[in-house]
Write a structure and sequence with these properties.
The protein has a 10-stranded mixed sheet with strand order 1-2-10-9-8-7-5-6-4-3, with helices on both faces. It has helices at residues 33-42, 59-64, 125-135, 154-168, 187-197, 237-258, 295-307, 332-345; strands at 4-8, 16-20, 79-86, 91-98, 105-111, 138-142, 175-185, 206-210, 284-291, 312-321. The protein is globular. Helix 3 crosses helix 8. It starts with a strand and ends with a helix. The protein has a single domain, classed as 3-Layer(aba) Sandwich (Rossmann fold). It is 29% helix and 21% strand. The longest helix is centred in the last third of the chain and has 22 residues, at 237-258. Residues 108-325 form the Alpha/beta hydrolase fold-3 domain.
Length: 346
C-alpha cells in the first residue's frame, strides 16, 4: 500500500482526510509522472475554458476515446458470468465476477464511468476481476443505458433497479443481501451515490464514489469552483490546468447530452451534490484525485455528510487526475485504490 499522510480536507475544513502519497516523492502539490507523461504525449495543453458546443460533436468518436490500457493482475481463477436482468419494460445487461465455488459472498455493485454517454463493463473488466479476487466478494458490473439515446434518468433507473433485483435474487446468486455495497468511477460514482440517496440506499452497507461526477452543472454556473483552489508547484501548473480544463470543458457538453431538461442539472439523482435528504445513506467512502475537476464538488459533499452525522471517510490520491482508476497495471495508485476498496468491503 502507498504511504499516507493525514491532513485537513481543504483550507478551513474542520475535518481530515487520508492523503495517499506519490510513490518515491517527498514533495506535496506536485503532479504524478504518469499524468505529466499523458499530457506531454497528447502534444497539446488546454489552458483556457471553452463554452460547451455539441454542434459538431461525434458521439461515436468520443466513445472510442474512453478508457485506458490496463492489465489483468489476478493470480486466481475468476469466473465471469454475463446475465440479462429482465424487467417488465426492459432488459439490463450485467456481469458477475467472482471466485468460483465459494460460500455465500458479500457483493459490490460496480458502475462504470464514461460521462453517461460511453463506457462499458469491458473497459474496466480487469479492475472488476482484481476487486473480486482481493475482496472475496461478488462484483456485479452494470451496462446501463447511455445518453443521448437514453437520457436522464435512464442510467439511474437501470442501476437502482439492478440493486433492487439483486436483493430479491440474492439466494439464487449465493450473495449475502445484508452485505451489499456499491461503487463507481466518475459518472458511475455519481450513479452510485444517487442509488445510495434513493429508496435502495437502505440495502447498501457502503457507497464508494471514485472521483464521482457529483455535479453536472456547467462550470460557468458554479460559485464554488476556482483554479486557485488547486495548489500546485509553479512548474507543474500547466499540467494541472490542462487536465482540469479537459473535464471542465467536457462537463458542460455532457450536460447537454445527458439531460433532456436543463432544470434537472440540480436534481439530486443527476447531481448528488444538491441532495438535501441524505437519510438513506448509511456509510460513504469517497476516493478523490488531487487534480480532478470534480474534486471540489466531492469535498463539498463530504462536508454535507459530516454535517448530517453520516459516517464518511475520504482518501485523496496526491498528484493524480480524473481517470486514474482506468490504468490498472500501469499506475500504482489504481492497484492501491482497489486494495482499499477490498479492505473496506471485506
Amino acid at each position: 500500500m502507498l504511504q499516507t499522510t493525514t491532513m485537513p480536507l481543504s483550507k478551513g475544513s474542520l475535518h481530515s482526510c487520508t492523503f495517499k502519497r506519490i510513490p518515491d516523492e517527498t514533495r506535496f502539490h506536485v503532479v504524478d509522472p504518469n499524468v505529466i507523461q499523458k499530457v506531454e504525449s497528447s502534444g497539446k495543453y488546454i489552458l483556457t475554458y471553452k463554452e460547451p458546443d455539441t454542434t459538431y460533436l461525434n458521439i461515436h468518436e468520443l466513445r472510442k476515446e474512453m478508457g485506458s490500457p490496463n492489465l489483468d493482475l489476478c493470480t486466481e481463477e475468476i469466473e465471469e458470468i454475463p446475465y440479462l436482468v429482465s424487467l417488465s419494460d426492459r432488459k439490463i445487461p450485467i456481469t458477475f465476477f467472482r471466485i468460483p465455488n465459494k460460500e455465500k459472498q458479500s457483493a459490490i455493485v460496480f458502475i462504470h464511468g464514461g460521462g453517461y454517454i460511453g463506457g462499458s463493463t469491458l473497459v474496466l473488466q480487469n479492475q472488476c476481476r482484481f476487486l473480486a479476487e482481493q475482496s472475496g466478494a461478488t462484483v456485479i458490473s452494470i451496462d446501463y443505458r447511455l445518453a443521448p439515446e437514453a437520457p436522464f434518468p435512464a442510467a439511474f433507473d437501470d442501476c437502482k433497479d439492478v440493486v433492487k433485483w439483486l436483493v430479491h435474487h440474492a439466494d439464487h446468486w449465493n450473495i449475502d443481501p445484508n452485505n451489499l455495497s456499491i461503487a463507481g468511477e466518475s459518472a458511475g460514482g455519481a450513479l452510485a451515490v444517487s442509488c445510495g440517496l434513493s429508496e435502495v440506499g437502505k440495502y447498501l452497507k457502503l457507497v464508494i464514489p471514485i472521483y464521482g461526477a457529483l455535479d453536472v452543472c456547467s462550470a460557468s454556473d458554479l460559485d464554488y469552483w476556482d483554479y486557485d483552489l488547486y495548489d500546485v508547484i509553479p512548474e507543474h501548473k500547466k499540467y494541472v490546468i490542462t487536465r482540469l480544463n479537459r473535464f471542465r470543458n467536457l462537463n458542460g457538453t455532457l450536460q447537454n447530452l445527458y439531460l433532456n431538461d436543463i432544470s434537472d442539472a440540480k436534481n439530486p439523482m443527476a447531481s448528488p451534490l444538491y441532495a438535501t435528504d441524505l437519510s438513506n445513506l448509511s456509510n460513504v467512502l469517497m476516493i478523490e484525485a488531487e487534480y480532478d475537476y470534480f474534486r471540489l464538488s466531492n469535498d463539498l459533499f463530504a462536508e454535507h455528510l459530516w454535517n448530517a452525522d453520516i459516517p464518511c471517510e475520504v482518501i485523496r490520491y496526491q498528484g493524480m487526475d480524473h481517470g486514474f482508476y482506468d490504468r490498472l497495471g500501469y499506475c500504482e495508485q489504481t492497484k492501491d485504490c482497489i486494495l482499499e476498496i477490498a479492505k473496506h468491503i471485506k
